[in-house]
Design goal:
Low-confidence stretches of chain A: none
Helix content of chain B: 25-40%
Shape of chain B: flat
Strand content of chain B: 25-35%
Order of helices and strands of chain B: EHEHE
Largest sheet of chain B: 3 strands, parallel
Largest interface: B-C, 38 and 43 residues
Radius of gyration of chain B: 13 Å
Shape of chain A: globular
Oligomer: heterotrimer
Number of domains of chain B: 1
Mean pLDDT of chain B: 90
Number of helices of chain A: 10
Distance between the termini of chain A: 51 Å
Number of helices of chain B: 2
Radius of gyration of chain A: 20 Å
Strand order of the largest sheet of chain B: 2-1-3
Chains: A alpha/beta (316), B alpha/beta (66), C alpha/beta (1084)
Chain lengths: 316, 66, 1084
């Protein structure tokens, strides 16, 4: 992993020095364990703060929105798919972005890990597939990385960038035997009452902080529907109806566009499994239209298109 | 199921279902009164927000047809 | 007005009204058995007895025939009244213990068993029958005898021809004593029949006064003089008495109207073939029906409500058979030698729908000779019917339908393709009847001096497909030949173009300008809403309490004025409404009446006449969707009406005056493609007076037509084509651009700017409309040894030899054609439509050149639709040998020294045979030019095969969904010359509807972008079927979406798709729909 860091820094410095880009967006170490921050490197010097490890879960495509300067960006599989989305949706021009592709082996679940150790985590280190957690009490515990991955990373089938200008390493092997939609199928099998209870329970702790929305590269509207006041779509309160409305509509806005990068879940201060909403729509898009978001800039998502010859086989 | 009649809010496409609802009248069919129709220019106009607003407003069911 | 008290309530009635009528108006229930509003009351049953106080004493009177008077006091339900009625009911029950109406009344009055001796009568002697019989002008029945023997009968108990069998007595009889059967047996000597609904093909009855079918234009009732009693006896006229607007006038006579016209279009249609002449089909059996009857049965508005049943016992059928070619392709039994063109497709459609209705268990079999699905997307439908829907297709012509004794089933015997005889039973057999020309139409044609074809269709020439043999008279639709809806629609537009071409100079010579009332500016005014609630005679007021709705509306926010109208749509009411709107300075209007689908434009006109913007209006439907469907629930219907009015008021308050932007129209047209279609379109446009630019990429005109030899009608293509080319070249209004490609297209309907590159030189062209006629090319085969030997040709190459009159053709001894080369197979699942006819025509040409030649045609289905069937027959007569092959067992071709060897499995012998021929012609597929660049320029779609997709497969076949762009010819689908020219004229006709206007107005209800909220994500640009949204290229909001009002259809798809809520749909804006939702709260 540290070799990635060196290579990212090297690429960033080269691009900045050659004047190919005005800035490189990547990750730097955060002030809290497991929470790397986005980093804007505008000079070779600033590029030295760039790092890569298993805590780069933020989706950097979010920081490309409407940028007019020439930007280099560090992109793992999911980030690259969101960059594709951004290109399709006119949020960035392809020629304005230089993509430093990073083959990814998954990010550590920052909600899961604290529950696996006693005491507050003071530091997390990694060496190959081993994740070493230190707590404030001075305890040290080792984990196999595969056991502490974010669920979306464990299920990921697009670990390598789908679009890039250079790769900092050879592509990693893609996982082929994963089941992205296992949990969706479980929910689909429930009765309507069970589903209702399941989702009510799921979002019962939501504090409507909108961190999930802010972390999501898909959410870039000048005025979000939750902030709309004429007419008011969604109440501002903690009323369960308003909370539900927010989550449902947010998910619908991501239909056919969500790359399952997990940024929303990662940033949720309450640890809500927000992906349960978007995943169902991802599954529908996959099964009805054979569509996975962000794999091609040639086509718009199925729900964004009108075609007179749409077979509409599933409409009865 | 209880005997309670559900309140139904319906959004009908001007070009087909709204016309069909008119035709039901012309044919003197009968149906329960607990339905309110909002005419929309096309079901393409239908936003998920309308459905949620209808449910929030107390409708037991929202029917979109077009 | 007379005022009196009814159950203590002060009520009013008109002078001369009876007590019962007034009580009914006020919703006070008084029971009666002998009263009907169409007849004078007689006080026979005494059930309506009420208590009357005349100021001094009380007495009992019958409400039905007691005239009201000032100051009287009436009680309808006192103890005494109740007791009296109970006694009457008890006596009626004793007389008629088995009559349901009486039983029900008895139950209501708590009578279990009458105390009197019971009889077994069913007549209560109410006299409704005798009174209505008199009213009908017959008086065939009367009350005879006296006292205990009193009964309804004819004089002397003899059957009489005075009774017309109208059935009015049975209709009014409250007890069911008189029935239609009894009328036939005991009363009339005539043999009356039920009036059959023509629309439901006799599966249902209808009244003498009726609306022919729900979509009839005009949608008003008509009286059938042949069966109306008034026209037989001079009596009845109940309809005229009841009509509240006095619309019925029985004295109207047919009048002769003379019109001076420049052209005439004949569109008289066809009649379905009547299979009752063919006794071996046993059409009189209830379970043998025609396809027309099947259509009605499958229709949700049909006689069985869309429920599929067999007619013998109304049970759901388990097995259905369709028999094709009943009344078509049959010289021996019905003299209709032609193919009716449409039956194969409709039979497949019916089978698929039947399975959709009844589920997969339903067994559907179609018995056919050749499956003819040569239309656009038809072959795919046929394939899906086979593979997805599981419809059985059996190649066999059934001779006889045998009813199976003691069952309702029908037996069919046939031989399978393997030669096995099969006997099978079906619950229902559908005869796929053909189309034919009615005898009176043949007579009319003779009168007009129009020539007909052997099949009695209107005779037309290939290069003038809608012109009859008489100048100035044009024909379209099935009168010109059996055809389906798209082709009929194409024909009709083409006939309109042809009719306009000859009278183009007269355009706009008889138009009148309309006076316009200046529009009042209401910006800044507080909403002042006027609400008009319509009674619609009794249609609404009979159920909904209109005064209560009016009262309720007065209390709604911003409502300034409320009134009710008897008929809001009547001219005087309209004038009155306009006056009120102007006088009260109302600035928003709600009309609660019937449906906006029919009446919104009328009321908007009322607003315009009052100087109000027509979009400050909302109509709410308290008739079709309220009073008519809740007639047994007046209270809740009234509540619903209040809710609907409240929702409409909430919405209308948020309405703004909307502008209909005016767009000037450039009167020039551009036609892309210099083939037959393109030239025909250009010529029609120019003949109609419009300057036209014809763009052709090659250096010559004629397209694929230059390769063709003869038409199916035997006309020389080159002669006619030369004439067409010459007329195009000579035309003053046609500008020819050869060697020209289109570089770019900007603009939209009425205002296109196209960049041409003519001989490499760039040129700008401004035009209002574009017709795309980019045609198609022949498939170059890789199969059947093509290219290996000069004796293996494509159809066009053979035509070339004919055209050049190549020597040696007549010396050929053996020739073969292979059909469907590249068509009707995976990857190109469509029929190329022309090849069967083409090959047969060429086979006959070979026979003409050498009658001794052996000619073989290897085919899958012969698709000589319409009167092209005669060619097929002629070919067989002249000895052309037809050998059928199947897709999974294609012929094998081998080039040998002494000839071309073809091995094919013969379908009769069921074994391979080998042919050795000197000439092999491959009937190759037709492939669209599929110019994607052009499609992108005009933003028009193509299907997966590369053919352009028209606006509507049936109703918009010569135009695109994108306004101002039209299509014709083989770019749409493979088609012969006559159909190409018809579509070219159709496209021209559609274009002229646009080009003939100086400007068009966009609708006011269109979408608009708020650029400050736009995220530029492009969903709107992508989802719009009409290409209305685009990104602004310059200005403050460059990069943001904008919507072209000229292209927007106001569907709202972009509005709902816009995640950031940046798009507004004027007239159906989000806040307006939300206000309706919010006002629903109190509702229900």
């Amino acid at each position: 992993m540290t070799s990635y860091t060196d290579k990212i820094q090297e690429a960033a410095k080269r691009l900045l020095e050659e004047g190919k880009v005005d800035m490189v967006i990547g990750y730097r170490k955060g002030s809290v364990p497991m929470m790397n921050q986005p980093h804007y490197a505008k000079s070779a010097g600033e590029a030295e703060a760039l790092i890569w490890d298993s805590h780069c879960g933020l989706n950097l495509a979010n920081y490309l929105t409407d940028r007019e300067d020439k930007v280099g960006i560090v992109a793992k599989g999911c980030d690259s798919r969101n960059i594709v989305n951004h290109i399709v949706e006119n949020k960035i021009k392809r020629e304005k972005v230089y993509i430093i592709g990073v083959p990814c082996t998954g990010m550590v679940d920052r909600h899961k890990l604290p529950k696996m150790v006693d005491g507050e985590i003071s530091d997390v280190e990694e060496d190959g597939d081993t994740i070493t957690v230190k707590t404030v009490n001075g305890d040290t515990k080792n984990f196999n990385k595969a056991d502490v991955l974010q669920q979306n990373c464990a299920d990921c089938s697009h670990r390598n960038p789908v679009i890039y200008d250079e790769m900092i390493a050879e592509p990693v092997e893609e996982q082929t035997d994963t089941d992205m939609f296992a949990s969706v199928r479980e929910i689909e099998a429930m009765s309507p009452e069970e589903k209702w209870d399941y989702f009510d329970d799921l979002i019962s702790t939501c504090i409507r902080c909108y961190a999930c929305r802010n972390a999501c590269p898909l959410c870039y509207c000048p005025v979000c529907f939750v902030d709309e006041s004429d007419p008011q779509w969604v109440g501002k309160s903690q009323d369960p109806i308003d909370v539900r409305t927010f989550h449902w509509l947010r998910a619908y806005h991501c239909a056919g566009r969500c790359t399952d990068c997990g940024a929303c879940e990662r940033v949720c201060p309450m640890g809500i499994k927000i992906r349960e909403f978007t995943k169902k729509l991802n599954k529908d898009c996959y099964e009805l239209y054979g569509w996975e978001a962000g794999l091609t800039a040639e086509e718009r998502p199925p729900l964004d298109t009108y075609r007179p010859n749409d077979p509409e086989d599933f409409i009865k | 199921m209880s005997d309670r009649e559900p309140k139904i809010l319906s959004f009908l496409c001007n070009w087909c279902s709204y016309g069909a609802a008119d035709l039901a009248g012309v044919s003197r069919m009968e149906y329960p009164t607990n339905i309110r129709v909002i005419r929309i220019p096309c079901t393409g106009r239908m936003s998920a927000k309308f459905i949620l607003a209808g449910l929030r407003q107390g409708a037991d069911a929202v029917w979109v047809s077009g | 007005m007379i005022t009196f008290k009814l159950n203590g309530q002060t009520v009013q009635g008109e002078e001369g009204q009876y007590l019962l009528q007034v009580a009914e108006n006020y919703g006070v229930y008084i029971p009666t058995l002998c009263n009907h509003k169409a007849l004078e009351p007689a006080g026979m049953c005494r059930l309506c007895t009420v208590e009357l106080f005349d100021g001094r004493r009380t007495k009992f009177v019958t409400a039905c025939n007691y005239p009201i008077w000032e100051g009287m006091e009436v009680q309808t339900d006192t103890e005494l009244v109740h007791e009296g009625r109970k006694l009457i009911v008890e006596m009626l029950l004793a007389r008629c213990p088995d009559v349901p109406v009486i039983q029900e009344l008895a139950k209501k009055y708590g009578i279990e068993k009458p105390r009197f001796e019971t009889e077994d009568n069913t007549c209560i002697l109410c006299g409704l029958c005798t009174r209505v019989c008199e009213k009908m002008g017959n008086s065939a029945i009367t009350l005879t005898s006296r006292g205990l023997d009193l009964k309804v009968d004819t004089p002397f108990h003899l059957q009489t021809d005075i009774c017309q069998g109208c059935g009015a007595c049975a209709f009014l009889c409250p007890t069911g004593h008189i029935t239609l059967d009894k009328i036939n047996e005991l009363i009339t000597t005539r043999q009356p029949e039920k009036i059959k609904s023509e629309y439901d093909v006799g599966l249902k009855g209808r009244k003498p006064i009726y609306v022919p079918y729900p979509q009839a234009v005009p949608n008003t009732p008509a009286i059938d003089r042949d069966v109306c009693m008034h026209f037989k006896t001079g009596g009845c006229q109940i309809c005229a008495d009841i009509c509240p607007v006095n619309a019925i006038d029985h004295t109207m006579e047919d009048e002769t109207v003379e019109l001076n016209v420049g052209s005439v279009i004949l569109a008289p249609g066809f009649q379905p073939y009547d299979p009752s002449k063919l006794d071996f089909y046993n059409y009189n059996h209830p379970n043998v029906i025609t396809s027309m009857e099947m259509e009605r049965m499958l229709s949700a508005s049909g006689p069985t409500g869309g429920h599929l049943v067999r007619l013998s016992d109304h049970q759901e059928p388990k097995k259905i058979a369709w028999l094709q070619c009943v009344g078509s392709r049959d010289m021996n039994r019905c003299n209709n030698a032609y193919c009716s063109s449409v039956c194969c497709m409709y039979a497949i459609k019916e089978a698929v729908i039947a399975k959709e209705h009844a589920g997969d268990d339903l067994d559907c079999s179609i018995f056919f000779m050749d499956m003819r699905t040569p239309g656009k997307d038809f072959e795919k439908f046929y394939e899906d019917a086979k593979t997805k829907s599981g419809v059985n297709f059996v190649r066999s012509r059934i001779h006889t339908i045998n009813p199976v004794a003691d069952t309702d089933e029908l037996e069919l015997r046939y031989v399978t393709e393997n030669g096995e005889p099969v006997t099978d039973r079906f619950d229902l057999v559908v005869l796929s009847i053909g189309l034919e020309i009615a005898p009176e139409l043949i007579e009319l044609s003779q009168k007009l001096g129009i020539e007909l074809t052997p099949g009695n269709f209107c005779d037309t020439k290939t290069f003038s497909p809608v012109s009859t043999s008489k100048e100035g008279i044009f024909a379209c639709g099935a009168f010109q030949g059996p055809k389906d809806i798209p082709q009929s629609v194409i024909d009709s537009s083409a006939a309109a173009a042809a009719a306009a071409e000859v009278i183009a100079k007269a355009r706009n010579t008889r138009t009148k300008e309309k006076e316009v009332v200046p529009e009042r500016n209401i910006i800044g005014e507080r909403p002042k809403i006027g609400v008009f609630v319509c009674r619609c005679g009794i249609n609404i007021a009979g159920v909904v309490d209109v005064p209560a709705v009016v009262e309720y509306a007065k209390g709604l926010p911003y409502v300034d004025f409320v009134d009710e109208n008897l008929f809001s749509c009547s001219q005087d009411t309209q004038d009155n409404m306009s006056a009120i709107i102007a006088e009260k300075e109302l600035n928003r209007i709600v009309v609660a009446a019937c449906t906006p689908k029919t009446h919104e434009p009328l009321f908007q006109e009322t607003l315009i006449n009052a100087g109000l913007n027509k979009y400050l209006f909302e109509m709410t439907n308290i008739r079709n969707q309220d009073s008519w469907v809740h007639k047994n629930n007046p209270e809740l219907a009234t509540e619903k009406a209040k809710d609907l009015v409240r929702m409409a008021v909430a919405k209308v308050a948020r309405m703004q005056p909307l502008e209909e932007s005016e767009l000037p129209i450039n009167h020039t047209a551009m036609v892309v493609g210099g083939g037959i279609s393109g030239m025909a379109a250009a010529k029609s446009l120019a003949d109609q007076g419009f300057e036209t630019h014809l763009i052709e990429k090659s250096d010559h005109l004629g397209g694929q037509g230059v390769n063709l030899y003869h038409t199916a009608k035997g006309e020389s293509v080159s002669e006619n084509l030369d004439k067409l080319i010459e007329s195009v070249r000579q035309h003053d209004l046609i500008h020819l651009h050869l060697n020209t490609e289109i570089q770019n297209v900007d603009g939209f309907v009425g205002n296109f700017q196209t960049t041409l590159s003519e001989n490499g030189k760039e040129e700008q062209l401004e035009h209002g409309a574009a017709v795309l006629a980019t045609g198609a090319v022949p498939y170059i085969p890789t199969e059947y040894g093509y290219g290996e030997d000069p004796r293996i040709l494509t159809s066009l190459e053979l035509d070339k030899k004919f055209n050049e009159n190549e020597a040696g053709l007549e010396k050929i001894n053996d020739a073969a054609f292979i059909q469907c080369v590249g068509s009707r197979e995976p990857g190109r699942m469509y029929c190329s439509r022309v090849c069967c006819t083409h090959s047969i025509e060429n086979a006959l040409e070979l026979k003409r050149r050498n009658p001794e030649m052996n000619v073989y045609i290897l085919y899958r289905d012969i698709r000589t639709y319409g009167e092209k069937e005669y060619l097929y027959k002629q070919a067989r007569q002249e000895g052309v040998i037809f050998i059928r092959y199947s897709l999974d067992d294609k012929p094998q071709v081998e080039v040998k020294k002494d000839g071309i060897s073809i091995t094919v499995t013969d379908h009769i012998l069921n074994r391979p045979i080998e042919l050795s021929v000197d000439l092999l012609t491959l009937a190759t597929a037709i492939i669209p030019s599929a110019d994607e660049k052009l499609a992108n320029f005009f933003k028009v779609p193509m299907n997966e095969d590369g053919f352009f997709i028209e606006r509507h497969a049936k109703l918009g076949p010569a135009e695109f969904a994108t306004d101002g762009v039209y299509l014709c010819g083989m770019a749409h689908y493979p088609k012969p010359i006559d159909e190409s020219i018809a579509q070219a004229k159709a496209a021209a006709s559609r274009a002229v509807t646009l080009l003939s206007q100086d400007s068009i107005h966009s609708s006011g209800t269109i979408a608009e972008v708020d650029p400050t909220k736009c995220a530029s994500c492009g969903v709107c640009v992508s989802v719009c079927p009409y290409s209305a949204p685009s990104f602004a290229e310059e200005g403050r909001f460059a990069g943001k979406a904008q919507i072209n009002p000229a292209l927007c259809k106001g569907c709202g798809l972009c509005v709902a798709s816009c995640r950031s809520g940046a798009i507004h749909l004027k007239g159906f804006d989000t806040d307006q729909i939300m206000s309706q939702i919010f006002e629903m709260d109190e509702a229900i």
